[in-house]
Amino acid sequence: MSTTNPVIYFEIPVNDLRRGEHFYANVFGFAFEKEIIDNYEMALFPFSESRSGISGALAKGDVYIPTKNGVILYFKTDNIDDTLQKVVEYGGHVLYPKTKNNQYNFFVAEFEDSEGNRIALHQRGV
């Protein structure tokens, strides 16, 4: 049995890498590093070994198909309302509005990104 968190990396499928980068850079302020990995175009999210959490990439290629079905990734945000506003401003759509979980004191929301993926947001309660 592992003593660490089980997930270490993710890939978000994109049809248009430039459009996906533009969306995530403007919604979250991310800067990307581009690489070719196993002959697939990747735009790597920021990562620091000294900080908690995981990182991943926007990934373009024949095996990467954007979808609203399946696994849902949660991005941390300090303000879901502001983030959802940017989502819409940069071509996304709100799928599940900001909702409070009273039991654990946090908020969640879900959106469709510029590529057609279902992505979620998490904000600690105030």
UniProtKB/TrEMBL annotation:
SUPFAM superfamilies: Glyoxalase/Bleomycin resistance protein/Dihydroxybiphenyl dioxygenase. It comes from the Bacteria. PROSITE patterns: VOC (PS51819). Gene3D superfamilies: 2,3-Dihydroxybiphenyl 1,2-Dioxygenase, domain 1. Transmembrane segments: none annotated. InterPro entries: Anthracycline_SecMetBiosynth, Glyas_Bleomycin-R_OHBP_Dase, Glyas_Fos-R_dOase_dom, VOC_core. Pfam families: Glyoxalase (PF00903). Residues 6-124 form the VOC domain. This is VOC domain-containing protein.
